[in-house]
Amino acid sequence: MTVSNENLPLLLLKARENSIAYVRPVLAEFGLTEQQWRVIRTLKREAEMNAQDLALESCILSPSLSRILNRLETDKVIIKKVDSSDQRALNIRLSAKGNRLHDRIAPKVDKQYKLLYQAVGKDTISNLVSLLEEFSSRGQQAAQA
Fold it and tell me: Residue 26 belongs to what domain range?
């Protein structure tokens, strides 16, 4: 099979869409977008991050992240504070409400991913994850060279 420059990104997007389709109903139940969930999940894993690192880790462009953070702060899901050593930098962490929200959603998301594993097959997903990690790593190395 020949993969052209045009269909590789499209196939990656389709795979992403197929996987997130399992989770989207859970997020909708809690009034969250996929991007908001990525921010919450990343902050839960990392505890506290500056906005630049959060954008990189959650794969969200900075202008979009700013809007998402403002909404999550308004909803009291996150706490933003100015970095004591760099007044231009923001440190972000989950609030107690944000931690509780994550802990309520995560088991439901995990359940949906188990359904995806059953539908697609654990081996297929494991192989895909390995390939995507290699693809991302090599792509990043090539871009930095």
Answer: 7-144
**Is residue 20 a part of any domain in this protein?**
yes
The encoded tokens of residue 105 equal 């959603």
Can you tell me which residue has the tokens 């097959």?
121
Q: Which of 26, 46, 39 is nearest to 70 (CA)?
A: 39
pLDDT at 4 over 80: no
C-alpha span between 69 and 76 (Å, rounded):
10
Per-residue pLDDT reduced to its tens digit, 43-68:
999 989 999 999 999 999 989 999 99
Q: Which amino acid is at 64?
A: S
Residues 6+ apart with CB under 8 A from 30: 101, 104, 105
Give the Cα separation of 28 and 72 in Å (integer). Answer: 15
13 located within any domain: yes
Name the 3-class secondary structure at 22. coil
CA–CA dist 88, 82 (Å, integer): 7
pTM for the full predicted model: 0.85
Cβ within 8 Å of residue 62, ≥6 positions away: 51, 52, 55
